[in-house]
Design goal:
By secondary structure, the chain is α+β, with helices and mostly antiparallel strands. About 40% of the residues lie in helices and about 30% in strands. It contains 3 helices and 4 strands; from the N terminus they run βααβββα. The radius of gyration is 19 Å and the shape is elongated.
Length: about 110
């Protein structure tokens, strides 16, 4: 999985890069088909905002954006938001696949 980190109006330090890498490297565990995540860190109106854009197979895109007075808190909150989206998508796909004939009951056996 490829992680691209971009800073708008802010210098990205090694500590920020490491924190983002630590958080985003866990995302394929929640949704296998993630191929790329773009992390955009921006200072707007005096507050940092973080946006994660995860791209997967079949043009699936997941976006999580968070603004907070503390940059590291914003990173944590955005990664948690993205994690919830990925878990929901994986659960939805798994539930759609597991339908099959096993859920049907035999109505002629009465």
């Amino acid at each position: 999985m490829q992680i691209n980190i971009t800073g708008k109006h802010v210098d990205i330090t090694e500590a920020i890069k490491k924190h983002i890498d630590d958080k985003l490297s866990k995302m394929p565990h929640y949704y296998d088909s993630i191929s790329q995540i773009d992390a955009i860190v921006e200072y707007a109106h005096g507050e940092p905002s973080v946006e994660f854009i995860a791209r997967g197979e079949h043009n699936k895109t997941f976006v999580a954006k968070e603004t907070n007075s503390d940059l590291y808190t914003a990173i944590d909150m955005a990664s948690h938001k993205l994690e919830r989206q990925l878990i929901k998508a994986k659960t939805k796909e798994r539930d759609n696949k597991s339908g099959g004939l096993a859920g049907l009951t035999d109505s002629s056996a009465q």
